[in-house]
Structures are given as structure tokens and as C-alpha cells.
Specification:
15 strands, 6-stranded mixed sheet, alpha/beta, Alpha-Beta Plaits, 5-stranded antiparallel sheet, 27% strand
């Protein structure tokens, strides 16, 4: 388990004291995968350095499995760091060592016999799908394979916690998916607690059980994915269910409609939008399945004079509606995080032309969830 209590980090500069982390409280349960996201300068790098005690916190506690690392003297700290495995954005393998020797290196440094370290390295390479590449050098491996070696190396000392610092940002998206699937498999197979530091919301959508949004050294929003996606209009909900860019030439008033399958089917939502009349159009939409929830956002265009009526009808039906051009929350400025393109979008169509069966044009769709396929 990872637990941060009142974590604070200050740096003294010529311009004065800079607060990089300002009272971080966070608990990540055993065997969970938790994501930390935030814009550049939010404090993500400082946070992970404090977690490993590469930076000593100014104040607060850093607990791994109940032990406060920040309170330990240096010698004990070196021993306790074995509980933490680290996967970096840039793997930094030894070019002159084979994949197996790179994985075995942490064990050899700790005094493990060569045969024992080699056997453990082979076991871990098999776990990450590289059993046949143990004698290959880093130059002979692809970027994704090198990252797999890095993950195997991080697991060599049998840690209870795995910290992943931007583990996929240097990889293409297809390779990224493979690495994220590997992290999930390691989490499930070994029961590790995993903390993923990333600026890509697509990473959070694929692997995380819970997520925290960091901004200006503070946690702005935090919780299980299932709760975050249904906190409609919040920074994390908007990034977890992204919309495509507003269509060029859209001139009417823009409204965003959010919903969850816990309350509505896609077919029901489309029927409600259809009932708004021919002067209302669906501009774009996104459907995602996250933490067992089928969640969606639609952006619709309507005449300015019709806005009060449209909002009233949709809210009376229980849908969450906001004006797309107004600030969504007081923290909206920190919610614009980069990442791969959003999921499948619903093409622009007049709401009146969306078939009652739940597909544009009225094509049959019994379950009502094929709009974004």
C-alpha cells in the first residue's frame, strides 16, 4: 500500500521559496493501479522523486506498506527501497550487457549469486514475453522490447510497489497498448500496487482503477474511475470522456449532454435528443466503457432562443447538461491534458434524423449501443 500524508516539498531559489507539492494526501490500496495525471509543471516529477526519497520531503509522510520512508536514516532507507520497483520513460539499459544481464544487475549489486540472479532474470523475461531474447543486447531490441526489459528489471528484487513514470510516452500507440497490458498482467499476477505517472488520459482509461488530478502541487480531484466518469462536468470526467473538436461552421448555441448506462441506454438518450425537434442537431459524441460503466457525452447545436427549453427538457429527464462555451468548473483550466485522439465519435446529424432505434438514419440496433462502433 502507498500512503502519502501531508506531503510537502519546497525548493529555495534566488527568487524565493517555491512550493512544488502543497499538502498531498493520497492512499493507494494493495494491488490497485492508480494514475496521477496533470499538466506540465503540476508537480508529477517531484511527487515521484519524493516517493522514492530521491528528494527528501520538506514535510509529511511517505508510507510504503505502513513504513514511513521519510523518517528512516539513509542505511535503512536503502534497504526499504527494495520494496519499490521503478519503470522510467527512458529505460537506460546498459548497452554492453545482454537483456538477461540488465535484469540481473540489481540482484548482483545486492550480492545475489550469479546463478541465482540469472535464474531470476530468465523467469522475469519469460513473464514479460522475452524469454527468447535474454542474450540480445539493447541495440538489437525494439523500443517496446527495451521497455519490457525495464519492467523485468524493476521486478527483480520482488518489490511490493511498482512506480511507472511516463512508461509509454516514448512509444507509438500500438506498442503503448502492449506495455499497458503487460503492466496490468504484472499487477494481477504478482499482486503489486502500481502507481502510474502520466500526462495521457488514454493510459488512465486503459489500465487504472482510480486516478488523481494534480495541479499546482495539489490534488484537485481524486477517486475511483467509476466515480470520476459520473462526476459530470468535472475536469477528470471531461478528460476521461473526451469530445472531438467543435465542427467548423457550427453557429448555433452549443450544449453538452452527459450520461451513464446506470441511468440511461444510448438508445434512450438518442430518443430524447430526437424529441427536441428538427432545429437541434448532434454535432459530435463519444461513448466509452470505463470501470463497468457505459458513459457518453454528446455535443448538440440548437437555436439560441431554444436553449432554455432544451436544457429544461433534458434536465427534467435526468440528463446532465451544460453550455459548451461556458467555463465547466473552476478548475477547467487544468483539465486540458494531451493524449491520443478520442474514441469513436458520433457523426454530425440532425437530431430529428436520428432513428428511434438508436442509430443515425433509423438502422436497427436492438441494444442501442452501436452508435460509436
Amino acid at each position: 500500500m502507498i500512503e502519502l500524508v501531508g506531503l510537502r516539498k519546497e525548493f529555495t531559489t534566488k527568487a524565493g521559496v517555491v512550493t512544488a507539492l502543497d499538502g498531498i494526501d493520497l492512499a493507494v490500496p494493495d494491488a490497485a493501479i492508480h494514475g496521477i495525471v496533470g499538466p506540465s509543471g503540476a508537480g508529477k516529477s517531484t511527487l515521484i522523486r519524493c516517493l522514492t526519497l530521491l528528494e527528501r520531503p520538506t514535510a509529511g509522510e511517505v508510507k510504503i506498506d505502513g513504513e514511513d520512508l521519510a523518517a528512516l536514516p539513509q542505511r535503512q532507507l536503502r534497504t526499504q527501497r527494495h520494496r519499490i520497483g521503478m519503470v522510467f520513460q527512458h529505460v537506460n539499459l546498459f548497452d554492453s550487457r545482454t537483456a538477461e544481464a540488465n535484469v540481473a544487475y540489481p540482484l548482483r549489486v545486492c550480492g545475489a549469486p550469479k546463478r541465482q540472479a540469472g535464474a531470476r532474470a530468465h523467469e522475469l523475461l519469460e513473464l514479460v514475453g522475452l524469454a527468447d531474447r535474454g542474450r540480445s543486447y539493447p541495440a538489437q531490441l525494439s523500443g517496446g522490447q527495451r521497455q519490457r526489459v525495464g519492467i523485468a528489471r524493476a521486478l527483480a528484487a520482488e518489490p511490493s510497489v511498482l512506480l511507472c513514470d511516463e512508461p509509454s510516452s516514448a512509444l507509438d500507440w500500438a506498442t503503448t497498448r502492449q506495455i499497458l497490458e503487460l503492466i496490468q498482467r504484472v499487477n494481477r499476477t504478482l499482486g503489486l500496487t502500481v502507481l502510474v505517472i502520466t500526462h495521457e488520459m488514454a493510459v488512465v482509461r486503459q489500465v487504472c482503477d482510480s486516478v488523481s488530478l494534480l495541479a499546482e502541487g495539489r490534488i484537485v480531484q481524486s477517486g475511483p474511475i467509476g466515480e470520476m466518469v459520473t462526476d459530470y462536468g468535472s475536469p477528470l470526467a471531461r478528460e476521461l470522456i473526451p469530445l472531438a473538436a467543435r465542427p467548423v461552421g457550427a453557429a448555433g448555441a452549443q450544449l453538452e449532454v452527459s450520461f451513464s448506462s446506470a441511468d440511461f441506454s444510448v438508445r434512450d438518450v438518442l430518443r430524447l435528443l430526437t424529441d427536441l425537434g428538427p432545429d437541434t442537431a448532434i454535432e459530435t459524441g463519444t461513448l466509452e466503457t470505463l470501470a463497468g460503466h457505459r458513459v457518453g457525452r454528446f455535443q448538440i447545436e440548437t437555436a439560441a432562443a431554444a436553449v432554455p427549453r432544451v436544457i429544461g427538457q433534458l434536465e427534467a429527464a435526468g440528463l446532465h447538461v451544460i453550455a459548451a462555451d461556458q467555463p465547466k468548473t473552476q478548475d477547467d483550466a487544468v483539465s486540458r491534458l494531451p493524449g491520443p485522439p478520442p474514441g469513436p465519435a458520433v457523426p454530425r446529424a440532425a437530431a430529428g434524423a436520428v432513428g428511434g432505434a438508436g442509430r443515425p438514419g433509423g438502422a436497427p440496433n436492438p441494444d442501442g449501443e452501436g452508435v460509436a462502433s
